[in-house]
From TrEMBL:
Gene3D superfamilies: alpha/beta hydrolase. SUPFAM superfamilies: alpha/beta-Hydrolases. Residues 47-168 form the Alpha/beta hydrolase fold-3 domain. PANTHER family: ALPHA_BETA HYDROLASE FOLD-3 DOMAIN-CONTAINING PROTEIN (PTHR23024:SF24), ARYLACETAMIDE DEACETYLASE (PTHR23024). This is Alpha/beta hydrolase fold-3 domain-containing protein.
Amino acid sequence: MSTTSSIDPAFYAFDVFEETYKTVASHDIKAAVLIPKNLKPGRHPVIVNIHGGFFATGHSLFAAWFHPWLIKMALDQDAIIISADYRLLPSPGGIADQLEDLEDFWQWIKAKFPTVLQDRAPGHALDFEHLLLVGGSAGGYYVSQVALSHPDEISALAMAYPCVDLKDSIVNEGPPLGKPTVLRFPEADIPSKEEGLAWIRKKRGTVASKGELEITPYCVSLAQNGIFNAEVFEYDGVRLTTNELPLERLKGGARLPKNVWIFHGDDDSVVYLHQSEKFVDLVRAKLPEINLRFDVAEGKDHAFDMDVSVWDAYPASKDAVAFLTMAWLE
């Protein structure tokens, strides 16, 4: 069943295929589907994954940023994973373009994908009563937005070190005095401000939905120099509105799914812990009925869970995954 041109070893336990869910300017935007090999026919719980990557890179099958614990959970629970691509920034409409893509992706999952699945994997069906939504970093932002728009369609939401405050000072000013460089990049390896600007100028005007690691240093440069917001989020008259700001949506009365897990390292060098703390404080104040678990990992940096040995040694990891599994499948 695997139809992608090259499957990363991280996904060898799955049959994998991709489907186009929308087309923009003749560019196909796809979703990847991962079905555990030897999965018995029947209805299966669903995991929807939305990748991160500085809002500007990564893709639906980018193994380096695909949570290993999520892969294991899917295999343990015989779940089907649907992982989304979307337009990468910069794009003409900025964040609004990405949110439009992900709303179209969500509607495609519900309206069209069940028929696609019957064609590609006969005998398998989706149990939308048990749907888990997962995203980390920028992906944590995206899943918060999807969840705020569709709270009653999601059994459980998992947000890893989520970038939920697009107004945070790091995108306008860079890291404050005493903080490490963004992602702890060695200063000698960070492209200059001029190089970062040259890269963003070159990338503007193209539609892309898949990016690789070589883009990351330029994103680091823009953030380190305090111009990420001006050059990526709010360039050329584009302005962030309430619709693009999860914290403002929560303040305005938007709801979340009934089960939410958030985890974040307290030594995060790009999405600072206070972003999650603001989100959690608002949820507790506005939505006290939510079954919320918030784990703060002492001494851990951004994306610490991508290292299996570090994650397995993290004292809360087993209890947290057990919480999420029960919340998702209860």
